[in-house]
Batch of 2 targets.
Target 1
Amino acid sequence: MDLQTLTYIVVGLSFVLYIGIAIWSKASSTGEFYVAGKGVPPLANGMATAADWMSAASFISMAGLIAFLGYGGSVYLMGWTGGYVLLAMLLAPYLRKYGKFTVPEFIGDRYYSRTARLVAVVCLIFISFTYVAGQMRGVGIVFSRFLEVELLTGLIIGMGIVFIYAVLGGMKGITYTQVAQYCVLILAYTVPAVFIAMQLTGSPIPQVAFGSTVGGSDTFLLDKLDQIVQDLGFTQYTAAYPEGGKSMIDMFCITLALMVGTAGLPHVIVRFFTVPRVRDARASAGWALLFIALLYTVAPAVGSMARYNLTTTVQTGEIGSPDGNLLYAERPDWMERWEATGLLSFEDKNGDGRIQYYNDNNPAFQEQASEWGWQGNELSVDRDIMVLANPEIAGLPNWVIALVAAGGIAAALSTAAGLLLVISSGISHDLLKGAVTPGISEKSELMAGRIAVAVAILIAGYLGYNPPGFVAQVVAFAFGLAASSLFPVILMGIFSKKINREGAIAGMLTGLAFTMGYIILYKGVFIEPVIDNVPENWLFGISPEGIGAVGMVLNFIVATLISKITAAPPDHIQHMVEDIRTPRVTTAAE
Amino acid sequence: MSDNSENGGAAYWKANVTLIAVSLVIWFVVSYGFGILLVEPLNAIEFGGFKLGFWFAQQGAIYVFLILIAVYAIRMNALDRKHGVDEQ
């Protein structure tokens, strides 16, 4: 059977599975629609959270990003896992005890203020929409790449699938579909990684393999990789803080902004509203991180092995010797196949029919290279190829390639669905029921929720097809805003009884304005950048990706100061705080 | 930490906050400490094919995060029972 047919069959089967689950788990109340009736077992919720969390970018792009950044890529590995420790200890159990439906609802109740709730909804909608636009784009790209359909067709198919299970099943449908999607995506990610690890080092465990010796020799993979990339003029793979790389303070702040941002993202927090008990919220944060770690500890192994494979495929012999480089005519099949997609391209600058792949931005090395007759780097490689081409590089059968396609689609769909649901609950529950028409019946609210999902899908699809200039910058935006606006006020709402309405609103607005302002200034979202986005211009050397960490600190400081000079929260709020801190409130008789 | 049952709330909360504080110190040390601030000195130490600082940044910190959540969840269940605030 040819690859194309097989891919259609595997992806088609996965869709049948998702839709089947959606029909089985149709939501019949707002409780089921928003929080799956609070009946999701912790292990299943952990799996759903992991699928929700790991987007198309995690699946397709992250390993490639690490492959080219080396040590610098660690910010994503630590940043996108460490937030779960904060969730498990600082937020999830207490928000579950609070026991209502949405994050803005908590902020509104705790700070006894409709304004606070509205500010939170605005943050939530902005964060989630920027994020979901990127996901829909991912859905379209995966479809068009693997199924060879137009981007628009791919986007419409993806929107249709999400539409069916998000509108019908609400949180309940999404949760159980995500469990299935997790299984598909983790299988698709780890199978090729295991085979590549085995071929390269003889060890089947990728996490061990990239610390092992390369087949047949007694040299360690990472040492050999450091050596060969350095010999080609790049910085060493494992070296910390190389010239032109990220500085220590920037690594620190980016990691912090990503961790805190993770814990402040509404579509992640709301997952912990769906479990039956407080203790399940803690356990399910642990399960979620376990399932996420399965991918996140394999990704750096894939990154280093892929970089090694790519480099040694091209540099077949001694660097600088006339026949040390791969003849273009003898390139392997996978290179030929991916050239057709434009993800890989070759330009024979010196006309010797061989591929030279090296760092021509390194002046000292370029001088040396010129003596060998190298006239510039001839191979350009898109980072996504590091995951997409893995099965072919490892020479795996076609069904594995088909599985990777299904995995990429699963990763994009599951994240998009989770985001769309929090947008819809923000609109139907926080805006409509919370502010516009408080008297709305449960049935009408449920209908409003469904309509809101449908409309959100259309807008997300439109943004995915016509991405505004800023889609590429959204990661910095979504995480920075979540870190600097929502996380601090939720945390203070639980751990302090003194922070009041005025403090919370001022804190959120300060964090939001500072972070948004800084990112716009350097990255020019909506407008042209005002200042060149280079390290010399940054405040304390912190890049826009990391500035959310500073915004968060400002939020804490402003909220504390303002709360000190204004009236303390009323008694019933202080009791509410005591109540959410305890899983079961003991009776006076005890 | 005491058998202060009529005031279970305050003692329970204090024990919880202490546990969180200890956990977050470890959380900080393995990621920001070993993985970022001290990565260069630690990279001088090699174990297997890994430089230690690099390993913490790309593997070790994640494993420690997992252990921290597991220990916290288990300890809190015990704490809930001790203070009589566990869910049935």
Target 2
Amino acid sequence: MNQVLSSLGFGIVTASILLPAAIGFTLQFSATNVLNIGFGSQMTLAAFIGYVCTSHGIGLWYALVLAGVFGGVTSLLLNRFLLTPFMRRGTTFFGMIVITIALSLVLEYTIEAIWGPVSVFYPLSTGGIVHVGAMSFTAEQLVIIGIGVALALATHAMLRYTRTGKAMRAVAGNAPLARASGVPAQRIVDLAWLLSGFMGGAAGVMLGISLASVSFTMGDTMLIEIIAAAVLGGVGQVYGAMLGSVVIGVLLEESAVVLSGAYAPISAFVVLVIVLLIRPTGLFAGTAKAKGVAA
Amino acid sequence: MSYYLTVMAMYILIGIIAAWGLNLQFGETGVLNFAYVMFIAAGAYTTAVFTLGHPSANGTQQYFWGTHLPFPIPWIASMAVGAVLGVLVGLVSLRRLRGDYQAMVMLVVSLIATYLVSANTGFLNGQTGLALIPAPFGSVHLSELNYRWFFVAVTAVVALLVFDVMRRITGSPLGRTMRAVRENEAAAVALGTNVVKIRLLTMAVGGAIAALAGAIEVQFIGAWSPAGWTYPETFGLFAAVLVGGRGNLGGVALGAFLVQGLFLEGTVLLPSLGNPDLVGAVQWITMGVMIMLFMWFRPRGVLPERRRRFATEARSRVPLLLVRAQRDARG
């Protein structure tokens, strides 16, 4: 029982990392309808940028912000100069996923070519463990939880209470109608990519801090978890992604206790398969049905 | 050098067989099987456990089960496993999802399969992989080099058989239905096609072909490990199909020759520069860029799919009727 409780602590940390990642992945998909398989590699790249920052003496948390900004800007540029031109050319969604996976290959192996196949490490402070009941957290983990929750709340506030958020929901719901109603759809799509990249970049550094190391294939495992969280919540549903992240995050760490640690990602996969077999639209079915991704 | 030539010839032939299987799924039916390399691996592992013998006979290697059976049986078993796995993966991912969404799920399947096999040492010897897998045709007595050429020749015959099967499928009404599913799913459904069934069928046939390629490969190289079937390998084959021309068997073979043979294996001959992983990394980067360039400039490949004409009979009859009509009018 104690072990289950203490791993709940790890689960909360993992969920807090998954939160921005899954929100970013989903937000971008709902606004553009393009599944970005390169998301995991973009996260890894941002995590390495975070490493470069820390190795130049920049503090860990500033590095996180810088990596997030880097992720946002790259994401925006990739959309503007790679993905949008392909879309304009009439490449189907079917073709777009081939493009994003090719992009993923390019990014992942560019990282390997630059930093090599070995892991790099973030400088972490030692000591300072906070006990909350049976759970214990390092100071860094507490900050990670704070950032994850803050990013989720900020997304919620933006979508609910700002004009931009309203416009983004409009574009996600029906892009041609939104455009006809005077919503600057292109700018909203750009913003979605920017936010998605920022969230992914921040999540990449958070993951690096949590694992204490960063390697070029880090994004691959993370991508499984992000997709599981996004699909569980209903792809394109930001609130679904939030719920999915919490469920998958806690499940991953609890299953690491019950099974052995190496099998943890498999539990995320099992959830994915079950959801696809029983309810492929996910818990919140709206977007998936509207966009025809799942019936 | 002659030894290296057999390796090169073998990789090209295996690449061609595997690319044809992928072409049936991606080129003809339009299923984006991003887990394709997993089927190659399934075939390789099946043949390995069907030839290695009982696990206790190989003290240092751990695997869940094993036996030793003579030549065609392991390959046939591999194809059966590939087909069954294809249907299983298809049942999870293909039934109710949009095409790109299916592809994403398959990618996850591929990632998790590599993960599962690496993490579980007792299953298929984990990260280390299986080695000392015996070569087929034990009764053939040839010198080492001649034996290798003999193996290449057998593979060439297998490739011809696969070509024949592919040509028959793509030329048949079934092939036409597959292309209908690819081009316009809604129209295919409206005409009464069971789209899911067609997709599952391509998953099974393509999976069997992939497994066959894996079976041949594993007996040629004698070893197999998770490092050999990570997800980028699938995109080496996608690149082959895209470069050659999806839907054109000759084009796909050309693509496999260029990408799998010259590009992936030929670069082994290059002197290594600095970081030992650099050549491999640059290869995959180039592969990604190549896929994007072809999608932009030549989405139909070097040798595009030929437009099929089925109307020969009808066309030959129309002029005849006209001639008759004119004659009757005159008369």
